[in-house]
Amino acid sequence: MSKEERLGRETGVFQSHRHFWNNSPGIVLCIGLGRSGTDPLRIRISDENIKGEFTPEMVDVEKLVNDITRDYQDRPLLNGDVFRCISFAGVVPWMEAIIGCNLYSLGSGGASMVAKPADMESSDLPQHLRYLLDNLNENEWFKKLGNGYQALAEALGAKFPLANTLMRGPGDMVGALLGHENFVGLMLKPADNKDFLNELLDLCAKIYIKTAKMQFERSKGFKGGYCNGWGLWAPGLNVRTQDDEIALVSPKLYNEFFLPYDIQEVDAFDYSTFGMHSGVMSLYNWRDFSKKSTISAFEVALDPNGPAAEDLMETFLEMNSEKPLVLVISNDEQAKAVEEHVPDFPGSILYNEVPKSLLGSAKASHN
Amino acid sequence: MVDFDQLTKAIVVGDSDASPELTKKAIDAGISATEILGRGLLPGMEIIGEQFEKGEAFFPELLAAANAMKAAVALLGPELSKNKIPPAGKYVIGTVDGDAHDIGKNIVKMMLEQNGWEVTDLGTDVPTEKFCSVIKEDSFDILGLSALLTITMPAMGDVIKALKAAGLRDKVKVMVGGAPVTQSFADQIGADAYAKDAVEATRKAKGLVSRKR
Question: In this structure, is residue A16 part of a structural domain?
Fold first, then answer.
């Protein structure tokens, strides 16, 4: 491809992304099969079998940025119809770490990390979060994340867009802080716990907003806008949120406890995508969310053990009649169903191509 | 007169005040623990389980029902042991090596316990060798393996292979579950059963044990 052709293609992609956010009919974008950049920290955890407590000092910003720079130097900017974008140390559950959870690395087996509830009395948590919100710049994890994005922007920001780290929403943050079953147990006794939980959710929503904005400031944007983790560019602040705790609550509890804070959080940004899973009865919330917030797009990860993709199509088409839709496909059956229905989608969609070698198998990654 | 329907309803709606109160009345009326369990409490867990599977109830309702059940069963404890009522079966459960997610496993454990199973929880990030040694040293009807990550799913197959290599495979039935796990994956690694959620896990566990006995 000549330089002119490449520039023309890139210009076309910016244009198609603008259309995507407008939910223009007929916009069908595909995430290509090009190899994504690997997280060098995840590789190090696996290679060196790093197991046990994981602390901010264990994140070497300079080394990681050098590794990422090397990894990306020859990669093209586009991956299918989206931009190839970079996140910093995605293996770290940053949001949970920032709010005070303890991180544990699982070594070579999973090469992943988990966040355990904070070592403090529940009754101390509101005070802890209030202090944190006012003093985020002093938090070691927050500083490390900011330094990572700043260094990445200096090294690669002109060439590739940077995307925020996985932004867990207020429900996930409070669930991680309190322990998931404990959180649900407290929600079941609203007379005793409603004010307490609402305060935690509100503080976490505000910490989320500040942390996302900090990453935008440090990453400095790309061509007048920002990309989310799917490589979708938008001409403004562009977040993607995941709040998997939804799987543990009922629609009633979701509306009572989560929705106001999910709204608070997405309304703080120009563009927002809210990620859901198909396998855990969490698709119920989209109508209220769509009606009451400025949410820009919905995303559904089609879980291999969830309902068949074909059975979800009616819901997807309805969702897409209101908002652009991102579908994360993990196997052959899902790919086939989505591709067959592409002409039926009334608005804009983005979905991922599935490598032939993985078709038919359970490939979905889960964070 | 003891109203078993009321007791069942208390479990279904997750009323942790009413369930022990009605259970106490039944005990005082001379009803056996077996009858209270069988006619009042367990039907409640079955109803809430069915509602969950149909999407009419959600995890909080399951949790509330389990808590109501727990409060009632606590009163039956002495009576149950006096009459030597055997558990529904012995189940050992754990999240596989490299995976520290525990909520799915905990929900399965909770549902099994409230349906009369004796459950041993090995926790998370359990090494393959640990599963083998536990099966070797004790007698369990079912081994439940949980994984939330695609990259840790293969460890389920490793456990089954290790059980075979140690000559322990026929000693225990193996059930698998977790977000990325599917029936075809379970078949591929030679598991005896796959369950998509805690309610199905409880039902399939019952089926596996009745076939075994």
Answer: no
